[in-house]
Amino acid sequence: MPTKIKLLFVDDDRFMRQSFVELILHYEYQIMTANDGRDALEKLENYPADIVITDIVMPSMDGLSLLREIQARHPNIFVVVVTHSSRIEEAVKCMRAGAYDYILKPFVFNSIISVIEGIISVGRLPENGRSRRNRRLGGSDFFGIVGKDQAMKAIYRQIDSLANTNANVLITGEAGTGKEITARAIHENSLRKSRPFIRVNCTAMTERIANRRLFGQETGAAPGPAAVEAGYVEAAEGGVLFLDAMGALPLTSQASLLQCIETRMFRRVGGTRSVKSNVRMFGATSRDLAKQAKEARFREDLLLRINVVSIHLPPLRDRLLDIPLLIDHFLEKFNARARRRISGIRDDALEILQQYPWPGNVRELANVIENAAIFCRGRQIVPADLKEIQRESSGKRIHLTLSSWSLDHAEEALIRGALYETRGNLKQAAKTLGIARGTLYSKMKRYGIERSR
Ligand SMILES: Nc1ncnc2c1ncn2[C@@H]1O[C@H](COP(=O)(O)OP(=O)(O)OP(=O)(O)O)[C@@H](O)[C@H]1O
Ligand SMILES: [Mg+2]
Asked: What separation in Å is there between the alpha carbon of 209 and the centre of ligand 2?
């Protein structure tokens, strides 16, 4: 790099400023200090800093106000906020306002250097222009995500606003709503996009396996050379670690992960040396982690570190207008793959799909369309092509052949639908169907429908 990276360190505590300068002197950075937000803004007029590292609580102008002023006046500066570890909520607030990263006091100096190096490595790559908000293809495709529903548009805006930060993100939503595709979109739209995106499925791992997979291991007799096996955290270095189904992570692994986030260091299983780490963490869950935390099944402090920004994906049944767009999208993919030319779906078939509750959300829709396309003989999908709409009900999968629906089939489907809508409440379901509860019960028995969903 031809010119030295310029840092501005803002803190009202003289001792903090001194120790920071002393630390930085060992590195090839240019450094200036300021004692509050106002002072910082004045200095920035003549000192084009690349990175501002600022305390949050300061007299005169605090870190959050300074952040906002910098965003307005010098949008290319990376802002890193510093706060005491007992007040992490303040850091979270700044991250949500667009700070690039945060550092907790008392300082682990390594974490400051790691943050600075992280910014330099991702922020200065020539192909990584900042804030590339022009990636939207057409009106309805955003990094492969299809949907024009208000809720989806809000999600695109959120992804955009995350483009220049290093914030950890928690993505919530029912199964198949698009959590992974959203995580990938955030990564694609971020400064780390040319770095790895590593997905780890947290389900069904014992503590030992989880720790080994996440942090790797070192084997071999001391003092000889150890055989090193890298884990996911190491594989994701410089990029993103996507913790899928995060709620299932064993508690001890949660503790190690928390430590890794806090200190930006980790240790391989069986290892003695700490390894530096610069990884952004995304979590995905279909569970209520806050509730799990209250029941001591998930670490509240880890939740706080991952849930700096949260994105919630609404179920497909709440974005019915997106169904036709998604159908077109999946048909287009199918046509390309199978060399077919199915042009769309007939209104009556669409209506069936719009009335279905989609417990498996977009993933299920994709499957249904793929199946329909396989059966489709004409240019359009018609109801007879919807050979199977899979409905998970009472853990039992039923296949409805719409083209040969008997009255019994229809009745069974209606009952399952009513039970689904009422979440298994017999009284309500009977009311919806306009029959007595006893009648409903005997019909359920006849069709082998379980009482609970
Ligand atoms: N809005 C969307 N536009 C286009 N494709 C989508 C959209 N949402 C989901 N998909 C597709 O549906 C499938 C499921 O999405 P994804 O894997 O992201 O969901 P998920 O929430 O992670 O699911 P699970 O909870 O089962 O892990 C994928 O094939 C994905 O590409
Ligand atoms: Mg997923």
From this structure: 20
Q: Residue 158 belongs to a domain with what CATH number? A: 3.40.50.300
Shared-domain flag, residues 358 and 256? no
Q: What is the pLDDT of residues 411-443, one digit of tens each?
A: 777 787 788 778 788 999 999 888 999 999 988
**86/223 same-domain check:** no
Three-state DSSP class for 392? Answer: strand
Best residue for ligand 1 mutational test, from 363, 367, 369, 370 (most atoms within 8 Å of Cβ) = 363
Residues 164 and 214 in one domain: yes
In this structure, what CATH number is given to the domain that contains residue 344?
Answer: 1.10.8.60
Counting ligands in written order, the one closest to the CA of 287 is 1
Distance 364 CA to ligand 1 centre (A): 9
Residue pLDDT, tens place only, 299-315: 999 999 999 999 999 99
Domain span at residue 91? 5-123
3-class secondary-structure state, position 285: strand
Reduce the DSSP state of residue 186 to 3 states and report it.
helix
- CA dist., res. 416 & res. 301, Å (int): 41
Looking at the structure, do residues 303 and 364 belong to the same domain, yes or no?
A: no
Neighbours of ion ligand 2 (CB under 5 A): 180
Count, in order, helices (H) and strands (E) of the chain: 18, 20
pLDDT at 8: 96
Where is 344: in which H helix or E strand? strand 344-345
Q: Which residues line ligand 1 (CB under 6 A)?
A: 145-147, 173, 175-181, 284, 286, 326, 329, 362-363, 366
User: Is residue 70 included in any domain, yes or no?
Assistant: yes
pTM reported for the whole predicted model: 0.75
Residue 242 bridge partners (DSSP): 199, 282
Nearest CA to ligand 1 atom 31: 181
